[in-house]
Design brief:
Elements lengths: L2 E5 L2 E3 L7 E2 L1 E5 L2 E6 L1 H5 L7 E4 L4 E4 L1 E6 L1 H7 L3 E2 L8 H13 L7 E6 L12 H7 L5 E5 L4 E4 L1 H6 L12 E5 L5 E7 H6 L7 H17 L2 E6 L5 H12 L6 E6 L5 H11 L10 E9 L29 H13 L4 E5 L2 H17 L8 E4 L5 H9 L3 E4 L3 H13 L9 H6 L5 E2 L10 H10 L16 H7 L2 H5 L18 E4 L16 E6 L2 E5 L6 E4 L1
Parallel strand pairs: 1-6, 2-7, 8-15, 9-10, 10-11, 15-16, 16-17, 17-18, 18-19, 19-20, 20-21
Antiparallel strand pairs: 1-4, 2-3, 4-5, 6-25, 7-22, 11-12, 12-14, 13-14, 22-23, 23-24
Helix pairs in contact: 2-7, 7-8, 10-11
Length: about 550
Amino acid sequence: MKKTALLNGEVITVNSKNEVFEACLIEGNKIAAVGTTEEIKKYISASTEVIDLHGRSVLPGFIDAHMHLFLYGNTLMHLDCKNPAINSIEELKDKLADIVQNTKNGQVIRVFGFNELMVKEQRYPTIEELDELTQEHPIVITRTCGHIGIVNSTALKIAKIDSNTPSPKGGTIEKDKNGKFTGRLIENAFLEFNQNVTYRNEELFNALMKAQEQLFAYGITSVHDAGGFDENSFRIMQIASNNKQLKARVYALIGSLNDCENFTKNMLATGVMTNTGNDFFKIGPAKLFTDGSSTGPTIATREPYTSDGTNYGYLQYTEEELYSIFSPAHRNGYQITVHAQGDRAIEQYLSVIENILNEFPRDDHRHRVEHLGVCPPDLQEKAKALNVIPILNPSFPYEFGESYIRNYGERTNYMYAASDLLNEGIIIAAGSDAPITTVNPLVGIYTAVTRLTRQNTAFGQQQKVSLMDAIRMYTYNGAYASFDEDSKGSIETGKLADLVILNTSILDSQMEDLLEVKVDSTILNGEIVYTKKFEEWRVGSK
């Protein structure tokens, strides 16, 4: 059996005592020993590969507890307004004009990551501007939040949206004061529209492979996929995992970005259960969307937005409707979760969980809530009482903090309230929600410990956490949220050898320097799946 010894480093175990050692030993795909360098040297034989870490940190492989593999992969294959940054609508139009010239008629042109607050004009492109670019191609621009789209007339025709089409419940097909389409589709209007511009199987597979490359480069060995596009993308993800093409470990939430309610109901009807699968692919919780985007802004709040005294956001379901879907799922043993950003949506969901548990008590259910954006003390206490696991997005304030301050005012003091929740004794995990924000866990860790935005604006400073707590959110707690804490999430004897090796000592780094910390190597199941500088540390076999 292959053995690898990692010596002279900073092995951050994330065990129950947060112990830090110098070295560890891998045998096959498991951690065989952890201890001092001298202790681990005793296990070295002639065939053992030895890695001298020279003081670098080794952590458990990062677990992104909420991201969208297919959507993220597609941002890497199509025009992404974030990378490199597009700074004006004119610049966007120029790039689109080039794409039109090189795209076959009828093929969908996709753009991701647009943010009207980050372009010079401080607005969305108009439908007229997009129509001037092409009448032969559907253009679909997805806003950075993923909940709002801007499309041209050709795209509207494909979706059979005309002047008589009503806005769906929980969404808006936007028109101007003269009754003309603006091209903006908000919430359910955009999610329903997307069912008409689906992806080819080849596109979906390539998106997975592109996403996986980036996961490994950022030290991510496990992901909780929060929803692809439809049943077909779910199937392709399973096939890729079974064929060992998708090597990252996946906990697949039962939900989708398009027609989520029917997808979830159909999956539940098949009887496929939470935790069905293996170490590489498992079925996760049943998921629904209860409100909208924190940056849209379209989240459901108890008080109106600070930026708009008439706006309370979108609530997608009544409490009775949520109960009717989740009660049988809970009774049948499923883990359940929702996308809930605003305090009105969070309150509604927690009330549903409370009613379900009162009627049908169940130990260790580990029901989750994705995002838990605006969560004041009364809802924190309720989450604790119900043993709900919040999946926070620490990097959201880094990218969107200024818009949050403008839209929610003092409520930002308990947005993604990591410190308050930890003080309540609640286990919280962290996810990027990529491609909504960067998939890089170190940006999330930086923001969790500093609560500073990209512009260095202080954001809810009382919610800062320690570096070790931030690391735990991206490792052990992510494993706990998927019932996997006995097999991964910490560096302990007998656990899976999923590790990330950094380019420095993270514990000796200044908090303001965390953004400069990089991943040098990623080890998954005992094998190196990404390496940047690894060769220069290899001592060789001993």
